[in-house]
Design a protein that fits this description.
- The structure is a single chain.
- This protein is of the alpha/beta class.
- It has a single domain, classed as Nucleotidyltransferase, domain 5 (2-Layer Sandwich), CATH 3.30.420.
- The protein is 43% helix and 15% strand.
- The protein has helices at 52-58, 71-82, 92-106, 119-126, 134-140, 153-167, 170-192, 208-221, and strands at residues 3-11, 22-31, 34-43, 87-89, 116-118.
- Strands 3-2-1-4-5 form a 5-stranded mixed β-sheet, with helices on both faces.
- Helix 4 (119-126) runs parallel beside helix 6 (153-167).
- It is elongated, with a radius of gyration of 29 Å.
Length: 236
């Protein structure tokens, strides 16, 4: 199964190069585009105050992160959770900039660029010229935003997992998977009832005399209007 990690972060601002820091990270594990139920979530002490403008976006105050661990204290757990899976993020360059900055401060190797998958770029290809924010995509795909009064890393990762499923045609895949499982279940039920699977089609029970009579009937009745004649096939 294809394992991927959907990731989102909340920060004190827009640019780690000007002193902004990560204050929350949320990850959702998915396999074959569907959540497994495993997740990773941490609040992080940013070692600086959180500006009022940022608080209005995510609601995370200095008080909420006062006793939170600093990034070096959670980095090993974060890396263990992500493992070698691809990382899905919306406007991935933003999250990547902060992850790379924090990894650099810890002296850790960065995740390679080719591990990052940007759902914003996927959406821009599918819906060129349209609004492709996470909110806009949720509304377009009829994904409920009822629990999202403010931005939050884990909530946004959950929503993004649903958006990614839609962008990758996951509903069709899920239906195909259900059909396949139903077929397997039906075969198992037949076998349990004493009906083994047939390796080949049953032999025809029509006699040669009956087949000849049928051909004669078609020739006399339909003549050149025979469906089979149009395909060069012998009626019967």
């Amino acid at each position: 199964m294809a394992r991927e990690i959907v990731l989102d972060t909340e920060t004190t601002g827009f640019d780690p190069r000007t002193g902004d820091r990560m204050i929350e990270v949320g990850c959702i594990e998915i396999e074959d585009l569907l959540p497994t139920g495993r997740m990773f979530h941490r609040l992080i002490h940013p070692e600086r105050t959180i500006p009022p403008d940022a608080i209005r976006v995510h609601g995370i105050t200095d008080e909420k992160v006062r006793d939170a661990p600093k990034f070096p204290e959670i980095v090993i757990d974060l890396c263990d959770f992500i493992g070698d899976a691809p990382i899905i993020a919306h406007n991935a360059q933003f999250d990547r900039n902060f992850i790379d900055h924090e990894f650099g401060r810890c002296g850790r190797a960065l995740f390679p660029e080719d591990r990052w998958i940007d759902t914003l770029q996927l959406a821009q290809v599918r819906f060129p010229g349209m609004a492709n924010s996470l909110d806009a995509l949720c509304k377009r795909f009829k994904i409920s935003l009822v629990e999202r009064s403010l931005h939050g890393a884990l909530i946004d990762a959950r929503l993004l997992a649903e958006v990614y499923l839609e962008l990758k045609g996951g509903k069709e895949r899920r239906l195909d998977l259900s059909a396949s499982r139903a077929s397997v279940a039906a075969s198992a039920a037949l076998a349990a009832a004493g009906y083994p699977p047939r390796p080949r089609a049953l032999a025809s029970r029509v006699s040669e005399a009956e087949a000849a009579a049928h051909r004669a009937f078609l020739q006399a009745t339909l003549k050149d209007r025979s469906l089979w004649a149009g395909y060069g096939l012998e009626a019967g």
